[in-house]
Write the structure tokens for this entry.
Amino acid sequence: MKDILEKFYGLLKEKHINSFLVTYKPNVLYLSKFKSSNAYVLCLEGEFFFFTDSRYIEGAKEKIKHMEVINIEGNFLEFISKFLKTKNIDSIHIDKTVSYSFYEELSKYINLSFEKDPTFFLRKVKSKEEINIMKEGVAKSDAVYKRLLDFVKPGMNEKDVKDFVVCEFLKEKAQKESFDTIVATGKNSAVPHHETSFDVIEKDKPLLVDMGLIWGHYATDFTRTFHVGKPSDEFLKVYNIVKDAHLFAIEKAKSGNILKDVDLAARDYIASKGYGDYFTHSTGHGVGLEIHEEPRVYKTSEDIIEDGYVFTIEPGIYLPNHFGVRLENIVYIEKGYPNVMSSISLDLVVL
């Protein structure tokens, strides 16, 4: 952890900044390795302080050894301003993720300046430890998906399938879902973020399932579209286009390449097959402590891929009022090359 804190302060010094208050909860978790609904990290000239309230203070003192742990007494904004005065600090930097009310109230006590939290930059490159935690989570998600294929039957509704997934996640000791599981049957699968409903799963219709869990505070994200009963020729055609687009995108996910090339590999291929207007979202996104985080895998992204990047690849084609197909895996970059976390094949499953 000291290495991360040193990198954090190093990024501040590059901008001649000596004090920074971290308020964004996932960033507080990243720096402290402690989960609290009311916590902050303060950096003062390379010295780090963790603030939380009485509900968490004993646990924080037990687990956090790399920064000083301080109990918040009363209103945090008043408390932090008094603390800073004892350190002879009259101004600090904060990130723009704070609410306006937080900024307005704290600015009554101390001079504030905006600067992007360096933690966002640090989180883009995952350590081997982080990647291993995520691989463990994906293995659990894979196990649930395999059981799901044995569970799904025509006549069930989407909510039945979602409930099964969530219960199985908990049996795998997951902390919770990483997002609301999406189960979309038939024409519902043409809505990329369909809200799972009580619509009945029909025979000879596709079923799209987008699911993820939290393991060790890290998110997983996984989508497959399979078919309940015999698929149509059109579905088979679209499915294979999405599958090939997915594979073309993975080929571009190498260190030194630009992220937009990953997106365009999938996007241009889908367009070449006449379905460009029906691929309506980015090819992927970073995933880690949050289900959506940097980097974004989109046609305008200029980020240069490097070892430690972890992101999804999830091209899709959505034909309104007909059906949709999306195939999603998490990949991580190691020794210059992409590695797929999931062991689940991209081949079409017909139940």
